[in-house]
Amino acid sequence: MHTGDHRKIDLPFAPGVAESLRAGELVHLSGTMYTGRDQTHRRLCALLDEGRELPVDLNGQILYYVGPSPARPGRVVGAAGPTTSYRMDAYTPRLLDLGLKATLGKGPRSMPVRQAMKKHKAVYLATFGGAGALLSGCICAVSLVAFADAGPEAMFRFEVVDFPAVVINDAAGNDLYEEIALKNRGVA
Fold first, then answer.
1. At 144, which CATH number?
2. pTM recorded for the entire structure
3. Strand partners, 167
4. Which of 61, 59, 27 is nearest to 156 (CA)?
5. What does the longest C-alpha to C-alpha distance in the chain come to?
6. How far, in Å, CA of 79 to CA of 62, rounded?
7. Which of 31, 113, 124, 128 could connect to 11 by a Cys-Cys bridge, CB 3.0–4.6 Å?
C-alpha cells in the first residue's frame, strides 16, 4: 500500500511483498525485525555448520545490521543506527537460502549478495547513517534473542513502527547506487 511519498510495509514480509519493492522506493517498516552484525552472522553460520537449529526462523524476516547502544532511562533502546553492510556479505547468501527476505544497513553490497537476492527474490534496504538517535524513536520494544555474551552485537528482536528506509537492491537485480552513479556520469 502506498501512502504519499512512501510505502508502508508490515513485517515480517508477507509472500510477494519483498519481490514487489523497487530500487529507489521509500518504505516505512512496522512490525518485527531482527538484528545482527558480524559476530551474530558468524555464529548463525556456525550453528548451521554444526547442523543445529537457529534461534529464529529467518523465513520472511529482515535482519537489521545494528549494534544498539544502551538505553537511557525511559527509553527502550539507545542509538540504533546502521552498520556498514559489506561486513556481512560473506554470510548473507547462506541466510538468504533460508528464506531471509531483506537486510537493512548502509553502503553497497557485493555482487554475490546481489545475485543471491535476485535468486531468492529478496531486497536490500538502507537507512540513515549518523541518525541512530532519531531511528531509535521508531523502536517500540527490544528483546534479546541470542548471543547475550556479544553485548551490542547480540541478536535482538525489535518491534518497530514507521522505521524509514530506501530500497537499494531489489529482487529484479536493480541497484539504486549504480543508477545514481550512471546519472551523475550522464550515462542514464
1. 3.20.130.10
2. 0.93
3. 125
4. 61
5. 51
6. 19
7. 31
